[in-house]
Each structure stands twice: as structure tokens, then as C-alpha cells.
């Protein structure tokens, strides 16, 4: 099959998607429940992956989730997600969440994370996706760093598979 034409990062990116925090989003410590923020990142990353690949996608891995600061009641959360790089059927999407005080305009960095999605064909088999054209210097830096993280992920995956094999034999 001919290679699919590459697409720009901006073609699939989500920039500052707004979510207003309400009381039902809080945990017992009266800060925003982290699982809700992670779930929203997963859902929005899926949109980025499906825009880029034009296929159904599934989450294969999530790594380097860092909660950098708590979000609080009445904050406005701003979700930004973009494709860092694609390989065969897999894609890495970077997520960044900020909390905005909408009265003052002050923002705080709340979370960073990386999601790996895999595109599937109609038989649920991984299918190749378009390459990525980084739009600028920041996108080029993310493109390079994504390869380093992928090497780490695949190495861990291979090591765990070997341990499982050894246990079976
Ligand atoms: C993700 C999944 C489709 C991969 O299937 P698989 O049989 O392992 O397929 P392959 O080994 O051919 O790998 C396909 C791609 O996924 C990547 N991949 C698979 N597991 C991975 C992991 N843990 N971390 C990073 N990449 C992974 C491979 O590197 C490969 O990428 P490439 O095509 O770009 O080289 C399969 O493991 C799966 O269905 N997992 C469950 C997904 C799910 O239910 N998610 C939650 C709900 S959406």
C-alpha cells in the first residue's frame, strides 16, 4: 500500500480546551480529583489520534504523568494536546493542563503526560498512520524527545515479555 501523506501537528492539535471546575469534581482533600483530569486527557488525546490517523484508536500506554500543582474549586482547566510523533501504527500525544483563575487571568501548570495510541483497522489489527510534520522549533524538540521515550517504552515492554516467558518455561 502507498505510504499515507504526512500531516502537520496543528491539523490535529487541541489548544486550551476549557473545562469549568464544579463542586462534584473535588476529592476529599478539596482539590480537583486527579482521575477526572487524567480521564479527560485520555479522551481528548483520543480525538487528536483519531484526527491524525482517521481510524479508530485505542490507548496502548500512558507514561510520565506528573501532577505539578493542585487544581482548586472554581478554577477553569485548560487542556492542550498535540501529536509529538507517529511511527508505524502508534502515535505519542503530549498533554498539558493549566488551571486558570478566570477573574485575574493567572494560570498555573497542573499536569503533563504522554499518551501512546494505536490505530486499528476494521479487523482490530494495528494499521499504519500518516507521518508527522513538526510545525515549529517546539514541535521539532518534542518530535526528537518522543523517540527517546519510545525506546524506553519498547525496552520495558520487551523485558516484561521476557520475564513472563521465563516464568512460563
Ligand atoms: C495496543 C494494542 C492494539 C497493540 O496490539 P499488539 O498486538 O501488541 O500489536 P503490535 O505488537 O503489532 O504493536 C502495534 C503498535 O503498538 C505499539 N505498542 C504496543 N504496546 C505498546 C506499549 N505498551 N507501549 C507503547 N507502544 C506499544 C507497538 O510498538 C506498535 O507500534 P508501531 O506500529 O508504531 O511500531 C493491544 O495491545 C490492545 O488492544 N491493547 C488494549 C487497548 C485498550 O483496550 N485500551 C484501553 C481502552 S481504549
Characterise the protein shown here.
The protein has helices at residues 34-53, 137-168, and strands at 7-8, 14-20, 56-67, 76-86, 90-100, 107-120, 132-133. The protein is an alpha+beta fold and 169 residues long. It has a single domain (9-168), classed as Hotdog Thioesterase (Thiol Ester Dehydrase, Chain A). It has a five-stranded antiparallel β-sheet with strand order 2-4-5-6-3. A two-stranded parallel sheet has the order 1-7. Strand 4 (76-86) and strand 5 (90-100) form a beta hairpin. The longest helix is centred in the C-terminal third of the chain and has 32 residues, at 137-168. The radius of gyration is 18 Å and the shape is globular. The protein binds coenzyme A.
Short description:
The chain is an alpha+beta fold and 169 residues long. The protein has helices at 34-53, 137-168, and strands at residues 7-8, 14-20, 56-67, 76-86, 90-100, 107-120, 132-133. The protein contains 2 helices and 7 strands, in the order ββαβββββα.
What is the CATH architecture assignment? Roll
* CA distance, first residue to last residue: 39 Å
Bound molecules: coenzyme A
CATH domain class name: Alpha Beta
Oligomeric nature of the chains: single chain
Largest sheet: 5 strands, antiparallel
> How many beta-strand segments?
7
Pfam families: 4HBT
Organism: marine sediment metagenome
GO molecular function, one term: long-chain fatty acyl-CoA hydrolase activity
Domain HotDog ACOT-type: 11-123
List keywords for this structure.
5-stranded antiparallel β-sheet, 31% helix, two-stranded parallel sheet, alpha+beta, 169 residues, binds coenzyme A, Thiol Ester Dehydrase, Chain A
Amino acid at each position: 500500500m502507498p505510504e499515507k501523506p504526512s500531516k502537520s501537528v496543528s491539523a490535529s492539535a487541541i489548544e486550551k480546551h476549557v473545562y469549568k471546575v464544579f463542586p462534584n469534581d473535588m476529592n476529599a482533600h478539596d482539590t480537583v480529583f486527579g482521575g477526572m483530569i487524567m480521564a479527560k486527557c485520555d479522551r481528548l488525546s483520543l480525538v487528536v489520534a483519531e484526527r491524525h490517523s482517521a481510524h479508530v484508536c485505542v490507548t496502548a500506554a500512558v507514561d510520565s504523568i506528573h501532577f505539578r500543582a493542585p487544581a482548586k474549586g472554581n478554577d477553569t482547566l485548560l487542556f492542550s494536546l498535540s501529536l509529538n510523533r507517529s511511527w508505524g501504527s502508534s502515535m505519542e500525544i503530549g498533554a498539558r493542563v493549566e488551571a486558570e483563575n478566570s477573574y485575574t487571568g493567572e494560570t498555573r501548570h497542573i499536569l503533563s503526560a504522554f499518551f501512546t495510541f494505536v490505530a486499528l483497522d476494521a479487523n482490530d489489527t494495528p494499521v499504519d498512520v500518516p507521518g508527522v510534520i513538526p510545525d515549529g522549533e517546539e514541535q521539532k524538540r518534542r518530535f526528537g524527545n518522543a523517540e527517546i521515550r519510545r525506546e524506553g517504552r519498547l525496552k520495558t515492554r520487551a523485558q516484561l515479555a521476557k520475564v513472563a516467558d521465563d516464568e512460563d518455561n
